[in-house]
């Protein structure tokens, strides 16, 4: 009896998230992720000091965790409906916490900065996987430190699978490739260089070398057959205009939060615009290319979206200022960059199955409206004139549970006009409308607003209307996913809660 009482007292004294984990129904899968310093070889020459997630499967499927060959964290492969426990250990010199980007999880499992644990600390997450099959991410989310920790290596891929995927005619896992795209500044000794100057806080940190899955000059050998390509932008601030070097169209089958529906069909684009922490999936048949040929994935040039262009009104003066800064900052936003090379095999072509996308889910009833104005002034970002406070939430940042809110974002505040990738935690949403004419002409055709998303790009002067229907109650977040803007305070809380009988949340 004394042992039982002692055990109960220990449980009551444990931190709340850990106490919840211990009291929950036994999970199907238990993983451990540890964040710690490490060194890896990114390109020929000396090794690079990084921060890195490493992982272990403590209980359940051994194939739930696939180690990385570089600094990225292991790929987590979860199944829809699976009960998951993840033990996070912080072995860094600074506080940290993990956010499961795009995943719909309980408030305590979302990785809010108020849950950050210090050096040597631990945090336990528990959630049931409710997201559909798709491509997601995990990364740190401590306030003011996210950009530096992600830049130095803390990020990983999270894939959700469903049993029906093969029935839909998708290529199997053996014919998938995931490309996590990041830009980094590598000094001559292969040292990662983060911030060099004030402009890095305003524009966001832009690198001079594109890494794919943590490797420079990435190359893949592919059989001549259909492949499922998962393209992930895990850069701090860079926007990519992704295209094939032979100008073939890109066939998009999934947006950031799952497959497109049968009603939407495959979205064919001449190129795809991918903002920080957006993801898409392509169905690419390499069997339609000549055996033994080579094709590259590139980021094409587009008009500058950087701070200098906005401050100087664009045109020659803005471009001239950016040219002057380029030597210190690396390639500017919108410069052409190589991404990866694909070498097509010479074996006989294999035909793919007919793709059968899933039906569209029912749309929620729309009964609420919110409006948020984005602004960048005095070198800082604002959301409705507000900046981040750890637990502050305003009355107009509350959304009702289990019904649709039309949330309009307007990027028209202040003279320092910039594009912002906006992310909302704890929900998946649809883009209802994007104001016409405000997206740059050389990017407009590559925007993929179809399907469910959790991150969207909004250009200067634009208004974007979303349909958001929260299902998890609690305090979540919305923010710019340019990580330097986020760390600088362009982030706010939002609360999802049930409506009162009077009809107000």
Automatic annotation (TrEMBL):
Per UniProt, residues of the Plastocyanin-like domain are 70-164, 396-493
- Write down the PROSITE patterns for this protein, in alphabetical order: MULTICOPPER_OXIDASE2 (PS00080)
The UniProt entry, under Pfam families, shows: Cu-oxidase_2 (PF07731), Cu-oxidase_3 (PF07732)
What Gene3D superfamilies would the database entry show?
Answer: Cupredoxins - blue copper proteins (2.60.40.420)
Q: Tell me the InterPro entries matching this sequence.
A: Cu-oxidase-like_N, Cu-oxidase_C, Cu-oxidase_fam, Cu_oxidase_Cu_BS, Cupredoxin
Show the CDD domains listed in the entry: CuRO_1_McoP_like
* Example of a GO MF term: copper ion binding
Q: Establish whether keyword Ubl conjugation is in the entry.
A: no
Q: Which UniProt keywords apply?
A: Metal-binding, Oxidoreductase
User: Can you name this protein?
Assistant: Multicopper oxidase domain-containing protein
């Amino acid at each position: 009896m004394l042992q039982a009482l002692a055990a109960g007292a220990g449980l009551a004294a444990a931190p709340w998230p850990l106490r919840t984990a211990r009291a929950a129904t036994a999970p199907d899968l238990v993983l451990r992720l540890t964040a710690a310093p490490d060194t890896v070889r990114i390109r020929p020459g000396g090794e690079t000091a990084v921060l890195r997630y490493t992982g272990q499967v403590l209980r359940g499927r051994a194939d739930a965790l696939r180690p990385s060959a570089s600094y990225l964290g292991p790929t987590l492969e979860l199944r829809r409906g699976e009960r998951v426990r993840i033990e996070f250990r912080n072995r860094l010199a600074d506080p940290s916490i993990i956010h499961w980007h795009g995943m719909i999880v309980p408030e305590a499992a979302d990785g809010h900065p108020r849950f950050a644990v210090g050096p040597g600390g631990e945090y336990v997450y528990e959630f049931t996987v409710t997201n559909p099959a798709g491509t997601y991410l995990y990364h740190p989310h401590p306030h003011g430190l996210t950009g530096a920790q992600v830049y130095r290596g803390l990020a990983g891929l999270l894939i959700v699978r469903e049993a029906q995927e093969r029935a839909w005619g998708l290529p199997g896992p053996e014919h998938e490739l995931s490309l996590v795209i990041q830009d980094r500044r590598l000094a001559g000794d292969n040292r990662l260089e983060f911030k060099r100057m004030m402009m890095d806080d305003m524009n966001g940190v832009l690198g001079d070398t594109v890494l794919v899955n943590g490797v420079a000059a990435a190359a893949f050998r592919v059989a001549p057959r259909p492949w499922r390509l998962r393209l992930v932008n895990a850069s701090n601030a860079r926007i990519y205009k992704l295209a094939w070097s032979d100008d073939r169209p890109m066939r998009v089958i999934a947006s950031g939060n799952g497959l497109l529906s049968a009603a939407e069909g495959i979205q064919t684009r001449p190129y795809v615009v991918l903002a920080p922490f957006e993801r898409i999936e392509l169905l690419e048949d390499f069997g339609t290319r000549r055996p033994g040929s080579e094709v590259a994935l590139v980021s094409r040039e587009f008009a500058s979206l950087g701070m200098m262009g906005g401050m100087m009104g664009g045109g020659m003066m803005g471009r001239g200022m950016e040219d002057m800064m380029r030597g210190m900052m690396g390639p500017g936003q919108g410069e052409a960059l190589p991404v990866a090379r694909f070498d097509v095999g010479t074996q006989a072509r294999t035909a793919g199955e007919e793709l059968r996308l899933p039906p569209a889910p029912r749309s929620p009833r729309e009964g609420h409206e919110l409006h948020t104005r984005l602004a960048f002034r005095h070198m800082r970002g604002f959301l409705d004139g507000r900046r981040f406070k750890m637990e502050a939430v305003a009355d107009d940042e509350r959304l009702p549970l289990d019904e649709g809110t039309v949330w309009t974002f307007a990027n028209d505040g202040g003279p320092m006009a910039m594009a912002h990738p906006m992310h909302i935690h704890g929900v998946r949403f649809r883009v209802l409308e994007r104001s016409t004419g405000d997206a740059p002409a050389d990017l407009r055709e590559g925007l993929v607003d179809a399907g469910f998303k959790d991150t969207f790009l909004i250009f200067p002067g634009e208004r974007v209307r979303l349909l958001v229907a929260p299902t998890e109650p609690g305090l979540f977040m919305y923010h710019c996913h340019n990580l330097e803007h986020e760390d600088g305070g362009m982030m706010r809380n939002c609360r999802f809660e049930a409506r009162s009988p009077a009809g107000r949340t």
